[in-house]
Amino acid sequence: MSLRSLPPVNAILESAEMSALVDESPRSVLVVAAREAVAQARAELTRAKPGIAPPSLESIVRDAVRRVRAELRPSLRSVINATGVVLHTNLGRAILADEAVRAVTEAARRYTNLELCLETGSRGSRMAHLEPLLRELLGAEAALVVNNNAAAMLLALNTFAAGREAVVSRGQLVEIGGSFRIPEILERAGALLREVGTTNKTRLADYERAIGPKTGMLVRVHPSNFAMVGFTQDVEREDLVRLARRKRVLLLEDIGSGALVDFARWGLSGEPLAREALGQGVPLVCFSADKLLGGPQAGILAGTKRAVAALRANPMARALRVDKLTLAALEATLRLYRDPASLERSVPTIRMLGEPVAAVRARARRVLRALGADRAVKLGAEMVACTTEVGGGAMPLARVQSYAVALRPARGKVDALARSLREGPDAVLGRIESGRLLLDLRTVAPGEIVALVASVVRVLEEEP
Ligand SMILES: *Cc1c(COP(=O)(O)O)cnc(C)c1O
Question: Which of 5, 36, 79, 116 has the fewest Cβ atoms surrounding its Cβ within 10 A?
Fold first, then answer.
């Protein structure tokens, strides 16, 4: 055994490469990396057959440097979304408008009037910054913002149906993803689930029969992420509104994706609008702010003064409240909606969903050109027309036309290629389709193309 021939940790630390990192890295990180690199070399040597030469000093130093670099990178970092899915929950859903980014930076850096009324100098409400805008944009009497739409549901159910029954159609007992299931959140809110109808058919009479002295509220859920076809029936919103009024029970509608404008303009339809629901008399709606709205993670509740006042009075509201950075981002995003004609430019989510396919195609061409003919051949790269989804559990049936650069690596190592691209300094996320890795340009900004191409080139050059 030649374990003794391994260099001491100090020799690694004193190497030129590691010494060069002292300004960038805390000493503790350097020491741990050096120790781990030596330990790794020792483990390899112990496993190796007798007579095999120990790892060289250079290779251990290289390993230590790699460990330091990996350790210095933030864990939460930006990635290039080449999946084509605009609202990718694993990639953080909506990216913020420049205005929202500026508002967040400013609110983070300096003191704000978060809970202070500047006119009177007395304590104010953090909701005061958003409520007027939400009232204006939604046509609601009052509004409240909480941590996300799941929190909005939890708060509403707890406020109006704790120890009482919440009536929901069996066709709407959905799972949204990330283990958000309507029946479970309902139970945790202290409400008793009263299911009505069947999976495929629910009638007004089903609701009517279920309403009684124990009823706390009716809940209507937009089945965002799936669609039912065939022998189906559901109750019209207006009929449910009338029934709830007549029976004097609250109706909550979970709108889901929170589109503030009609996406039919961009060939996408099927998402309910909060404004429309409120206009048709729904007393309380809730929806996400980081889906089609294109803002930060938050849940918006809007409706009658009475309903929102009850929500506010629930101590749970304090536990679910949003911080100043979210408020800053949301206010700035909502302000952009005052000018609907410019949303395609101002809100990235809408820009990406609404961009004409020819522009996406032009970006795919740019990527191919930048790769160059030789590399393109080596990678089996070509431009392909494709379709992608909206994501975020919105518009499950909608297909967005797009263009991608498809890579078909030699010997079918498509998983390895996808992984190398993910793990690089500029992580690139694509999607694998029939043995190819598609880099979909719909979700790649023009400013990201150079980094995208550099990542592909790097992976190609690292190939043994
Ligand atoms: C997305 C969604 C939710 C959950 O919203 P979050 O903001 O992710 O908490 C709830 N209900 C519906 C109908 C949804 O589409």
Answer: 5
Domains belonging to the chain, first-starting first, are: 3-72 (no CATH), 80-90+352-462 (3.90.1150.180), 98-346 (3.40.640.10)
pLDDT of residue 460: 86
Nearest ligand 1 atom, CA 221: 13
Give the contacts of 205 (CB within 8 A, at least 6 positions apart). none
Q: Does 1 score more than 50 pLDDT?
A: no
Rounded Cα gap, residues 175 and 223, in angstroms: 9
| Bridge partners for 273 per DSSP | 259
| pLDDT tens-digit series, residues 84-120 | 999 999 999 999 999 999 999 999 999 999 999 999 9
Residue 407 Rama label (left phi>0; alpha psi -120 to 50; beta): beta
**Ligand 1 proximal residues by C-beta, below 6 Å:** 148-150, 176, 180, 221-222, 224, 254, 256-257, 288, 299, 393
Helices (H), 226-299: 237-247, 274-279
Q: Which of 142, 138, 105 has the alpha carbon at shortest distance from 125?
A: 142
**The residue to which tokens 């058919």 are assigned:** 201
- Does residue 234 register a pLDDT over 80? yes
Is beta strand 215-221 parallel, antiparallel or unpaired with respect to 165-169?
parallel
CA of 176 to the centre of ligand 1 (A): 6
- Of 28-42, 385-399, 420-434, the range with the lowest mean pLDDT is 385-399
Query: Which one, of 249, 272, 277, lies nearest residue 261 by Cα?
Result: 272
Q: What is residue 464's predicted lDDT score, i.e. its pLDDT?
A: 57
CA 171 to centroid of ligand 1, rounded, Å: 16
